[in-house]
Amino acid sequence: MLEQRLQDYIKSDQRLMEDLQQVRDLKLPDCYIAAGYIRNMVWDRLHGFDARGMHGDIDVVFFDPTDISEDRDHALEQELIARTENDKWSVKNQARMHIQNGDSPYKDTVDAITYWTETVTAVGARLNQADEIEIIAPYGLEDIFEMVVRRAPKFEDKDYYMRRVRNKRWKEQWSGLRVIEE
């Protein structure tokens, strides 16, 4: 089962486990580490790369319609930076992001990430109070484990998708990827 495989990958990554604990300690509603941190870790494992370090931001997503201020997100980022001495934290309340993205209001974090650019980016993980890893992947985990990059169905801007894939230069880092071009 792919979910168990992803959970095993995460459990074996000490830094990611520590980051999941830090995020859990924030006690934010519907909160996950998502996107590139998870995706890149999987691709590194599948390519046999060990401990390559951070590729980009640590994307923390949560859903709280009671306070959608960007100031709150920034304060949470600063708290995580102070606790971890890592300046790569990016915290975004998904209850606000529909405004920036020009979408209808999102219902929750899972709904919000269905609007992200690629299916392989729409994946997240969190550590619950019982120290169990919970996974969200509204498009499933097949693409991430089969190393297939494709535009997510709800992301309509095909040109932006292709520019993003080119600019990220993923195939240069992970030669086994297959990009579905549109």
Which descriptors would you attach to this protein?
single chain; 182 residues; alpha/beta; Beta Polymerase, domain 2; five-stranded mixed sheet; two-stranded parallel ribbon; 9 helices; 7 strands; 45% helix; 14% strand
N-end to C-end Cα span: 30 Å
Low-confidence stretches: none
Q: Widest sheet: strand order?
A: 3-2-1-4-5
CATH topology: Beta Polymerase, domain 2
Q: Helix and strand string, N-terminal first?
A: HHEHEHEHHEEHEHHE
Helix content: 40-55%
Shape: globular
CATH top level class name: Alpha Beta
Structural class: alpha/beta
**Assigned CATH superfamily:** Beta Polymerase, domain 2
What does this structure look like?
With 182 residues, the protein is α/β, with parallel strands linked by helices. The protein has one domain (2-179): Beta Polymerase, domain 2, CATH 3.30.460. It is 45% helix and 14% strand. The protein has a five-stranded mixed sheet with strand order 3-2-1-4-5. Strands 6-7 form a two-stranded parallel sheet. The chain is globular. The mean pLDDT is 96.
Quick summary of this structure?
This protein is 45% helix and 14% strand. It is α/β, with parallel strands linked by helices and 182 residues long.
Layout of secondary structure:
Blueprint: H1 2-11, H2 14-25, E1 32-34, H3 36-46, E2 58-62, H4 70-84, E3 89-93, H5 94-101, H6 109-113, E4 124-127, E5 133-136, H7 142-146, E6 148-149, H8 158-168, H9 170-173, E7 178-179
Parallel strand pairs: 2-3, 6-7
Antiparallel strand pairs: 1-2, 1-4, 4-5
